[in-house]
Amino acid sequence: MRNRILFSIVLIAALAGSGACNRTRRRSIAVIPKGTSHLFWLSVQAGALAAGKQFNVDILWNGPSQETEYDRQMQIVDSMVARHVDGIALAAAERTALVQSVDRAASAGIPVVIFDSGVDSTRYVSFLSTNNYEAGQLAGRALAGFIGGHGNVALVMHAPGSFSTMDRERGFEDVLQAEFPKVKIVASQFGMADRAKARAATENILTANPSLDGLFTSSEPSSVGAALALKSQGRAGKTHFVAFDSSDTMIQDLRDGVIDAMVVQDPFKMGFEAVQTVVQKLDGQTPPARIDLHARVIRKADLDDPEVKQLLRIDSAK
Questions:
Q1: Could you report the per-residue pLDDT of 121-156, keeping only the tens digit for each?
Q2: 161: phi then psi, degrees, rounded to nearest 5
Q3: What is the distance between the terminal CA atoms of the chain, rounded to a whole angstrom?
Q4: Burial 284-308, CB ≥16 within 10 A → b, else e
Q5: CA 112, CA 281: separation in Å to the nearest integer?
Q6: Which residues is 262 bridged to in the sheet?
Q7: Running DSSP on this structure, what letter comes out for residue 26?
Q8: Rounded distance, CA 308 to CA 298, Å?
């Protein structure tokens, strides 16, 4: 009898200790961007790491080098599922290619938050993104304003199948058709998420349209490549240019008049809130199915605004 009592006490203590360990184990959340080679994703990473620190979770940051490496991104998601991470925040590089990986994570009981760019699955907790259609409309109105509401413009797109940039491009096209019928889109090409390819695409457009009035690019790599093309062909400051996203070189180009305006997101906030939303789900809360963030138009005169400096991380970049 005495031995039985002692065994019970030891067993209860062991179980209690096991429970305490489970309660104190740090959760791990995988944050998987479309790519890792552009400044936008570095800012997303900074936001995710800040959230990890605030909410006491480990952030496992891993993504393909280039945003068109769909197979590599699928492999990363599947590897995180195999590691039994507690949650996943994913920016899907292609809306259909990542469906099976998202569904596998959901079937394994791992909550998935989709951020930045959507996926054709319903098995995720929340979709957190800039309202990209609205952002494209902002770009269209800005460019139409620069050219006086009439003229010929061109569009350098990101890559086929990218949910977020397709929405920007659609918003741009729709607002011109609805509100500025005298502005015509005379050319459009993909930059394929690559600065060199975007530069070549822009040079082709400029060569074919020597009197082009305006240009819109829907992502950071397209914007950087287009700016290089405008400068190389002596068109900087002559062809009005509305770019999307921000980088150090783009900010300088805005100061120099190569870029007339940038439509910018808040990637730090996006990374932070993506992780926060996963944590909320793990804590038993029910996050909203959709969380919209809003872009804004930045012109040269705005660069000294303290709020804009914080958004663009201008001081921290020095």
A1: 999 999 999 999 999 999 999 999 999 999 999 999
A2: 85, -5
A3: 74
A4: eeebeeebebebebbeeebeeeeeb
A5: 9
A6: 243, 298
A7: P
A8: 8
Count Cβ atoms below 10 Å from residue 203 Cβ, excluding itself. Answer: 18
Order of strands, sheet of 151-157, starting from the edge strand that comes earlier in the sequence: 183-190, 151-157, 214-217, 240-244, 261-264, 296-298
- Dihedral sign of CA atoms 279, 280, 282, 286 in order: negative
| 59 close to 29: Cβ distance less than 8 angstroms | yes
Angle between helices 70-82 and 99-107 (to 10 degrees): 10
Q: What is the value of pTM for the model shown?
A: 0.79
* Residue whose structure tokens are 């599947």: 78
Mean pLDDT computed over 248-273: 96
CA–CA separation, 310 and 314 (whole Å): 7
pLDDT tens sequence across 58-81: 999 999 998 889 999 999 999 999
Strand partners, 240: 214
| Residue 300 vs residues 75, 120, 255, 259, 310: alpha-carbon distances, Å | 42, 38, 6, 9, 15
Confidence band of 13 (pLDDT split at 50, 70, 90): very low
Which residue reads 């190569």 in tokens? 258
Residue 93's nearest CA partner among 110, 109, 76 is 76
The answer to whether residues 157 and 193 touch, using CB atoms and an 8 Å cutoff, is no
**What pLDDT does 281 receive?**
98
Spatial separation of the C-alpha atoms in residues 143 and 262, rounded to whole Å = 10
Assess contact for 30 and 58: CB atoms under 8 A. Answer: no
Beta bridge partner(s), residue 261: 242
The structure tokens 């609205």 sit at 134
270: which 2 tokens?
A: 């996006």
What stretches of the chain show up as alpha helix (H) in DSSP? 2-24, 39-55, 70-82, 99-107, 132-146, 163-179, 195-208, 220-232, 248-256, 267-282, 306-312, 314-317
- CA dist 52 and 29 (Å) reads 8
